Amino acid sequence: MLEHTGPLPGPGIKGEMVENALLTRVKQFIEKNRLLERGDRVLLSLSAGKDSVMLLECMRRLMDGYALEVGIFHLNHQLRGAESDREEEFIRNQRLLPGAETIIERYNFNTDIADGSLEERARNIRYGMLERVARERGYSRIATAHSGSDNAETLLMRMLQGTGITGLKGIALHRRTIIRPLLCLYTDEIYDYLKDGGLEWMEDSSNADDVYLRNYLRIHVMPAIRKRFTGADDALNRLGRLADEHEGMVEELLATVHGKIYEAADGFVRLRLNAVTDRRALKFMLPVLMGRYFPGVFMTRNTLEEICRRLDTDKTHLELYAGNGVVIKKTVASKEPVIEIQGRKVDFRTALNSWEYRIDMTAGTTGEIFIKETGLRMADKYGVEFHYQDFRPGWQEGIDRSIAMGLYRQPYCGC
Fold first, then answer.
1. Predicted TM-score (pTM) of this structure
2. Phi-psi category of 148—alpha, beta or left, where left has phi over 0 and alpha has psi -120 to 50?
3. What pLDDT, in 10s, does the model give residues 172-188?
């Protein structure tokens, strides 16, 4: 769906006021957090949606002042057929920066069998492509279009899933070369800016599908919260900033008491168990390290409790967790017990024991699904956890399970 087609009108008096206020806020936000430096080459990660168009507009307005060189990256997920192709063409033909280098990648997620949720898999592949393109073409920054509203929804979703302090930080303002300059803006004001300026964008039809947890929160939960609590988005974003400060303070205190807590190298992180003998310290540090070195991997409180339970053994070598692209194990390094976290690379196209089936888990629904890979049938009922040890080799009690409404690791009943 294309919004505001046709000639681009001027903003008018009201539009100019909104325009100047928002652009000034974004500029001050970038300066305060040192997101850009003069002469940066910035690769914009764009869909065809409103936030992406807003990001493109902001970078266009800031280019001269920062002497920026801006490029555009778009990934066609090929999930929505002709609609996905129209979005690709929208980016190719965008009119805000017609001379910008534009890199279009295509990836057919319809034929990709993923470990974990489709959203998680798409995010990991997109960021992998972005970092490769930036490295190959000499971009110093990668900018994404996440807004403050996105962050508020993320925080609420993680709270309901049972996150700890690290999860409460929400969407990172910056990580390595990735920056998010629109975290100071909210959805309503972005819509107002684009409409007043006559700027075009496209609506993703899948955003209306409330079977996805984020969409459910955005469509049904957040409007009710905002109606009753008018400052909800600000409050949630403020909570994220406080959690970030709290995490840094606790980590500094642990290092003061125990010295070097962990070591990180290419592809793995080792956490010294002698430095986190208190289980509270362990539950704190594991999510911190996951978020810092394995971005996009979210660890629930239930998973942390299971890892701690498995640690209560005399075994010196033991796998504690495997999923979401990482393997966590207890081992020995330099004659000292450690927890080692490693990235796990899997060729999903040749993983014959992997599959995914989506089932409706809304309240009051029941049904049956046929798993053709196993020849078995599975019945579903709202609120029931579906274990699949009969389907997946290496199934682990307490870690591998599907939970109604997708409370994270496997949102659907197949892997």
1. 0.72
2. alpha
3. 999 889 999 999 999 99
